[in-house]
Request: fold
Amino acid sequence: MKTKETVLLAVGANLGNKLQNLRNALREIKSCFDLAGVSHAIETKAVLPKNSPAAWNLPYLNIMAVCKTSRAPIETLSAVKMIEEKLGRDANAPRWSPRIIDIDIALYGKQKINTDRLTIPHPELKNRDFWQFLLEEIGCAIPKEIKLDVNNYKALNHFVLYPQFVGIVNVTPDSFSDGGKFLDPEKAERRVRKLLDDGASIIDIGAQSTRPQYIEVSPSEEISRLSPVLERCGNVDNLSIDSYFDEVVKYVLKNPNVKWINDQNSTLNPETIKLIADRNVKLVVMLRGVNFSWIDERIKYLENLGVKKSNLIVDPGIGFGKSKHENIRLIKNLKSLRQRYGCEILLGASRKSFISAHSNATPKNRDLETIATSCFAADAGVDYLRVHNVKNHMRFFVTKRCLENADLLRPGEFHEINDLL
Reply:
């Protein structure tokens, strides 16, 4: 058996949904290599030669992936190029132009290679402070001959790829935490774009409050609230609509930017469910109460109507038909839910009333308690966290990721490469 080398891959993207492009790249990297770890993502200015077109000056998101492989260096390069091609990179585009994905071999063990096709260590390693910044995060010592001072380096922004955040936008006058704040379509649009800038993967827009003792509004009222927001967000292609009315779901599915339906009541008729399946849209299924076997039955029912299991997301329904302590015990057992259902899991615990079991904070002031809950849920393997405050969640999880990465590499693994440079 060949000895596996540690390879450091610098991955960047500055076109399209950059966070998702990096996730897609990691998925493909994981299929080709043993993915041992990954840095947090930093946003940087584009590196461009003088007199480049202004249209090329788009910020990059960058990560450093730690991989193990028995492939030879040139085979590793071939695998990397195949991943880029699969993800849509135009191999014929000008060298410095924007790209959906860019993967470079920064280091390959302690090897030094200098050929027409491949140079290792990467020749730009000595020039790119953001690469060195990420390498230091994961514990890679930089040779003193090329080491840059990154102690005061500042990225444009910081993100994590996982967990993924679902940003909440309530276009209602009576939601429990932010009722009325985003009922105006212009304010709602600004909120959508702010949450995306903060790092949300998808925006869940609801036009019907489901707070305790809520008064239900009609499907036509929901549509009248949603329509102007969807129109203003015409170029936002990662929207979820929170509704359990067939008329509303059929209406919003005409919009290609709607990628999720969040059905809290599971009362959609078979015709609507088949339409969701035909559109290849994800469907969130919520557990009301504590009858866990109901979800098993619901999943089978939805699959029989054509919904792919990969498009099903289970929401344990925090705050719906459960006592405060039942909610806490349910969160405690999130890992077992993932194993039981074999679907992605979404947790919607943000600012909810179960927090009052251990905090006197008012709903709008429960973000600290929400982040603590989100941390526990993420460690349990939850895929999506539905939250009001994406920015503070991102700050917390970036810090957590950096602390976890501090000893990602074995001591000395890349500490003896001075003679290679």
Summary: The first strand starts at residue 5 and ends at 13. The radius of gyration is 23 Å. The chain has twelve helices and 16 strands. The chain has a mean pLDDT of 92.
